[in-house]
Amino acid sequence: MTEKFFPEVAVIVLNHNGKKFLDDCFNSIRLTTYSNYRIYLLDNASTDDDVTYVRSTFPEVHIIQNSENNGFCAAYNLAFTQCTGKYFLCLNNDVKVKPDWLTHLVNVAEEDDMIAALQPKIVSFFDEHKFEYAGSSGGMMDIYGFPFLRGRVFDTIEDDNGQYDDISDIFWSCGAACFIRASVLKEIGIFDETIVHHMDEIDLNWRMHLMGYKVKVVPQSIILHYGGATIQQQSFKKMYWNHRNSLYLLLKNYGIKNAISKSFVHVLLDYIAIGKSVVSLEFTRALAIFYAHLWITLNIFLINKKRNQVQKMRTKNDDYIRSKFYPKSVVWQYFFSNKKTYTELIKH
User: Is the pTM of this model over 0.90?
Assistant: First the structure.
């Protein structure tokens, strides 16, 4: 094969005071068998000596320094202006990659120009036979805006027995390892910085679908993810951002009829979650949902502005988008119908 078949990939590792993860991360990337990639450390205003350490220990890594720690979206948007390559790969610092990870991703992307984003299979840093909470084998979403994964639905994480090893259409590619066709960003826009972090990749992928692009998982590409290195899964911040941003995405990206009707159901399900939290004397989630809904209420004009921008851009209607969603409520199926895995959910 000639070099023209090996397009450049920018591997962009986001970091904030994560020095303890960087040896594993960069040492594993060094073993990548794909021939044409460039590594970037995207440092989000670390207060430790992370940048100095990387410069001395991994001299091949290009440094992009953000002047402030202003979230996932703003950091990567800065990187997109400075990186080169046909493809960008947003990568968490708390991962290790398999040597052939990039080869599989590039091969699939090169087969179809309509593929906008890809995700590798993401397994546990501590047990390769168990899916990792954040990414598993591809992200899905129900029609009411609740995300789940092939391999993890809410708190049920499956063992990886090869059951999701097919290259498959998904709705969203996990931000822990999101492979993006750079040219698509020029068409649909970059990350929405209103989101700050959490569900930012779902918003970006939703816009890809609105323009008729494809998002897939490539399970032959494998990374190991530590998980929860920045914000713990059950923290107030994590719950707040997820509840806030899930409603924001519905109001912004759906057509007006579905934006209203699906958000109404979403809010009702949130209130059921509040009731469950209060009864269980677990008030963290209840407070997170309350403040998430408050933010939505106080920022309705901002949401409408963002919504207008998306609706003017879209080329696909909601019937097309709904074909990409799980057609039922994953909340109801999980908590009331006892369907705990992706396989159980999609059984007819």
Answer: yes
